[in-house]
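Anyone up for a design puzzle?
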């Protein structure tokens, strides 16, 4: 089998759905453009992948796949995932403005082909452990502007039967701690609650919030300070009862620093930020050897989150999967990423990623296409 062509379309979503009032502020990007990639083969099997877009990087991603990586794939055997992964990884060493996410995206398309060739879901191909994974709901800061909004989000989480609820808060501790307290009151004692601060706090502010989480019995404290600040993560981990979850933005090859320094209680990763399916296999192996759990982060892109679901069904190290804003679940027939009555995401039955793409919807939201190499 050989890769014969790469074809990418740019899928445009209005940013309106992100904002509770449906109005995009003047200083915000009005459209989110997601690259949807199709890798073609000489056997007629196609592999799909997708990029991430909400910060305006979608068009750059769209072009980089063809400008930078086209000749690393076309003519190669897509089943040789390890060889292609290593080739692109070492090339990425000199692509100073690009991250591992680019070769992660391509790796996912190759695993989609590999699963379809075997007529098996990727999870079964890797060695499935389970058919479903508990799913928690994430509420971003834009949905948690005041106490009433917090109450409404908590009630929504319970009504949808999610297995947990994560709040994303980035304001001062005096403003955010009452929201954390209200969230616990709304969902009750024992319901899994998490906090994600996106690395914005100083050590002292993170410590103040972390001590509130200790009293409220939160499941974890996610990225309280920047991932690169390993020394302060180490101090925070030592001074809180609530597990500190970090290293979301770190490379797979940076993870030994967190483990060797005792800078984290739970590691973070996903198929986009840790090098695709191939990278997550390595990440999970590392975590298991060193006795760490790894919670799988949403990729906020439907094809990538299907990859997260596939890898999540191959491990016992992830207690949950993450459901972010519903606008990220687009263009798939049957909404396989939605929460089911049992509070879980269920593994699709189809081969590869199990992506049943709504091509009519995609056609209606496509604003540009690329095929072949741009050089």
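Challenge accepted. My sequence:
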């Amino acid at each position: 089998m050989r890769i014969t062509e790469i074809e990418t379309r740019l899928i445009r979503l209005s940013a309106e759905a992100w904002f509770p009032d449906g109005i995009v502020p003047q200083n915000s990007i009005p459209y989110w453009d997601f690259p949807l990639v199709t890798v073609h083969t000489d056997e007629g099997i196609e592999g799909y992948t997708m990029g991430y877009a909400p910060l305006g990087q979608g068009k750059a991603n769209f072009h980089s796949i063809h400008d930078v990586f086209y000749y690393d794939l076309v003519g190669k055997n897509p089943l040789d995932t390890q060889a292609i992964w290593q080739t692109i990884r070492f090339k990425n060493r000199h692509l100073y403005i690009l991250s591992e996410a680019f070769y992660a995206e391509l790796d996912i398309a190759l695993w989609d082909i590999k699963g379809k060739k075997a007529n098996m879901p990727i999870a079964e191909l890797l060695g499935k452990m389970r058919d479903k994974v508990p799913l928690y709901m994430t509420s971003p800061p834009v949905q948690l502007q005041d106490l009433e909004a917090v109450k409404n989000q908590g009630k929504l989480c319970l009504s949808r039967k999610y297995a947990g609820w994560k709040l994303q808060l980035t304001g001062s501790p005096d403003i955010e701690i009452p929201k954390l307290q209200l969230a616990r009151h709304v969902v009750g004692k024992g319901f899994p609650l998490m906090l994600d601060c996106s690395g914005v706090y100083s050590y002292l502010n993170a410590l103040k919030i972390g001590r509130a989480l200790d009293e409220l019995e939160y499941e974890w404290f996610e990225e309280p300070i920047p991932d690169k600040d390993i020394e302060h993560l180490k101090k925070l981990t030592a001074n809180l009862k609530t597990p500190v979850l970090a290293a979301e933005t770190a490379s797979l090859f940076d993870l030994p620093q967190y483990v060797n320094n005792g800078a984290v209680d739970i590691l973070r990763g996903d198929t986009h930020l840790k090098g695709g399916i191939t990278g997550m296999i390595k990440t999970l192996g590392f975590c298991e050897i060193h006795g760490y759990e790894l919670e799988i982060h949403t990729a906020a892109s439907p094809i990538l989150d299907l990859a997260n679901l596939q890898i999540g069904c191959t491990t016992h190290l992830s207690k949950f999967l993450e459901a972010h804003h519903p606008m990220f679940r687009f263009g798939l027939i049957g909404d396989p990423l939605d929460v089911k009555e049992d509070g879980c995401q269920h593994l699709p039955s189809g081969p590869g990623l199990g992506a049943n793409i709504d091509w009519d919807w995609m056609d209606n939201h496509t604003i540009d296409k690329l095929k072949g190499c741009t050089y």
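A detail worth pointing out: The chain has two domains: 3-120+356-371, 124-346.
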